[in-house]
Amino acid sequence: GWNIGLTPRISTYAFDARDYATLFTPSVVVGGPPTAFVPSSRIETLASGFSISTPQFRTFAASVGTTLGNDVDFLETSRVFRTDYNASLDLRPSERLRVSATYVSTAFMRRSDQERSAFTYIPRLKVEYQLARPLFVRVVSQYTATRREPLRDPRTGEILLVNSGGATSPSTVNTTNVLRTDWLVSYRPAPGTVLFLGYGGSMSEPDPLAFQQLRRTNDSFFVKASYVFRAPVF
């Protein structure tokens, strides 16, 4: 039941200038008007993926994987070195409890200046517990951390200008560090009769995966109930 995989991938990409109509490069003349951004010429890439997974044991199963190689950053049409990691773990310590954990990450490093231009980290945890035959509880928590450095011209290294709403301004850093947690309680006393109680909340912070300055951004609650009326049969 063990599974080991190795997947090489060769790709080639061309870019349509119409997809980059909102991007401009600064003028070489001080105070001059910006010029339209010209995407890179066709780029060839080579990357390899490796993965390994365990059999489905009685109490757990796990897998890990990675992808490494040369790729393309489509937002700025630059050559990058891409690093992906993923891992998963399913635990079943008892008939009532089930725990699932996953982790996914992606990072781009420009080959021209060796600067990390973007990354995404997503750890996720799901816990399910059967309190009794009719009563079930589930908690899902996921943290999404992303950072996108200012877009740069792959030819000159200058920060690109972005046209938004008729105004042109330099590209800026974009970050997202959000922790989302959802709770669900399910009660099924009889077939056709069910009550769901749920809560979801999101929190954000300035630094990725720091868990030190989390600030609540939104909350939501929901209640759902159903009941089947059975008419007598004559």
Describe the structure.
With 234 residues, this protein is mainly beta. Helix content is 0%, strand content 64%. The chain is built from no helices and 14 strands. A ten-stranded antiparallel beta sheet has the order 1-4-5-6-7-8-9-12-13-14, with no helix packed on it. Strand 6 and strand 7 form a beta hairpin. The protein is elongated. The chain starts with a strand and ends in an 8-residue tail after the last strand.
- Topology pattern, helix = H, strand = E: EEEEEEEEEEEEEE
Structural class: mainly beta
* Number of E strands: 14
For this entry, what is the oligomeric state of its chains?
A: single chain
With helices defined by DSSP (H or I, 4 residues minimum), what is the helix count?
Answer: 0
Biggest β-sheet strands, sense, barrel: 10 strands, antiparallel
Distance between the termini: 56 Å
Rg of Cα set: 25 Å
Strands ordered across the widest β-sheet: 1-4-5-6-7-8-9-12-13-14
Portion in helices: under 10%
Task: Write a brief structural summary.
With 234 residues, this protein is mainly β.
Q: Can you lay out the helices and strands and say which pair or pack?
A:
Blueprint: E1 3-13, E2 23-25, E3 35-36, E4 43-53, E5 60-73, E6 78-91, E7 97-110, E8 116-132, E9 135-148, E10 161-164, E11 167-170, E12 174-190, E13 193-204, E14 215-226
Antiparallel strand pairs: 1-4, 2-3, 2-10, 4-5, 5-6, 6-7, 7-8, 8-9, 9-12, 10-11, 12-13, 13-14
